[in-house]
Every structure is written in structure tokens, then in C-alpha cells.
Amino acid sequence: MSLLVSGGLRAQLYVGSGATFSIAASNIFYMAGDVILAGGNSNTIASTLQLEGSLTNNGSTTASSGTLAFTGSAAQSYSGSALTVANLVVNNSSGGLTLNAPPTVGTATTFTNGLVISSATNPLIYASGASPGSPTDASHVNGPVQYLGTTAFTYPVGDATYYRPVDVNLSANGSGLTAAYYTGQHGHGDRDAQLGRFEGEPRHQQCYGCNGAEDSALQRNPMVE
Question: Is-contact 37 13, C-beta < 8 A?
């Protein structure tokens, strides 16, 4: 069974094993509920999938030229298998987008409203050359972000209240460099695990696996409150 969609639905969409879900180029598909793509199917998102609900992707999904737009008014999530998508749009008015699987952004993110909530297991990943867009205090990543490229990149991270970017200019990045920003006491020990302390409330940025050329390229942005 092949399901080629455009337009929209107001209920939950479940695409079972053996079926195919496709959004052709130039089409936009709006979904008021959740989308569940079961394992054992092949799917293509070549344009925009706009979701008011959550997305579970357990199948084999190609979205390297497509856009995932999370535009809900309640908490949303991405779950299932890792996925590469050209563009990720976050415009969630309440609850944000929680990553239960690690998506890779190939082109750009658009932060309009709401947080992306990531974790060490499920970071938001940027391919080489991808753009973080223009995050704000109201919309950024609360948790780890991984970058797979070299040269300059700004990690769109913060602590759910403040956007506090981490700038890098990498000459080497063989396995991906991950950074996060969070509140808490600044620890002691390996300098590679701690990137500094700011005035006022204790806050610091953390780099996972920083060393050598990667570590020397990290620059702290000052916190302004």
C-alpha cells in the first residue's frame, strides 16, 4: 500500500508495516494529531510535514529534502529511529519539543517559539554546514547539541530561560562535537569537561569530548541578564 498525501487530517495517522507514506515535493501535509510510522515501511518526506501532535518514526524514512514543522499548542515529541531532515521548524506555544530519538538537521533550524528538549542520548544533531538559525530566550535547545562539521558554528543552546550560545571554530571534528548549557554548580577536575563560570547564579557550558584543536576553538559567550 502506498499513501501519497497532501492537505491535512485532524485525527491520528498510523501507517502500518508494509505501507508507504509520502509527501511529494511542493506539497504540504498538516496533521492536527500524532503521526505514527510503523517499522517495516519506507517513507518519503520531500516537502513539509506540519504537526500539531507528535511524530513516531519507526520505519525507514527519507526526509533529507523535507521539512518537519512542530507547531503545536501542547507538548510534542519526536520518537523512534534517527532521522535526517533538511529543515526543522519549532513553533510550539506550550511544552516544547522533546527529542526521544536524535534527528539530524541537514540545512537549517527555525526557532520561532518553544524549546527543543534534548539529552545526552538524544541530542539535536547538525550536519556539516547546517545553520542553527536565530534562536532566542523563548526558543532554543535546552540540552546537548552535536555538530558534525568544521569551521565556525554557533550552538543554539540555553537553559530554558536564557539563550546562551556557544561559538566554535573547528579545525578538526572527526567524531562530532557536542555542547550544552545548563545551570548548576561549577565542578572541579578535568578542565576539558568544564568551560567556565559566569557571574551571578552559577551557570556553565559543558563540552562532551573536547580535546586538542576542538577544545582550543571553543569560545564562551558572556551572559547578559
Answer: no
Residue 63 lies in a domain: yes
CA atoms of 202 and 89, how far apart (whole Å): 31
Amino acid identity for residue 11 in this structure: A
DSSP state letters, 124-161:
EEE-TT-B----BTTBSEES-EEE---EEEEE-BB-SS
Render pLDDT for 175-208 as a digit per residue (tens, 0 to 9). Answer: 899 999 977 655 544 433 334 333 333 344 555 5
pTM of the model: 0.82
Tell me which of 115 and 11 has the higher pLDDT: 115
| pLDDT for the residue numbered 57 | 95
Q: What percent of the chain has pLDDT over 90?
A: 62
Amino acid at 185: Q
Report helix, strand and coil shares of the chain as percent, to nearest 5. Answer: 5, 50, 45
Residue 9 has pLDDT above 60, yes or no: no
Which amino acid is residue 106, in one-letter code?
G
What the block records as the C-alpha cell of 94 is 506550550
Is 19 part of any domain? yes
User: In the chain, how many domains are there?
Assistant: 1
Grid cell 526558543 in the structure block, residue: 139
What is the amino acid identity at position 153?
A: F
> Residue 4 sits in which domain range?
1-114
In a domain, 224, yes or no: no
Residue 154 included in any domain: no
Cell of 46: 520531500
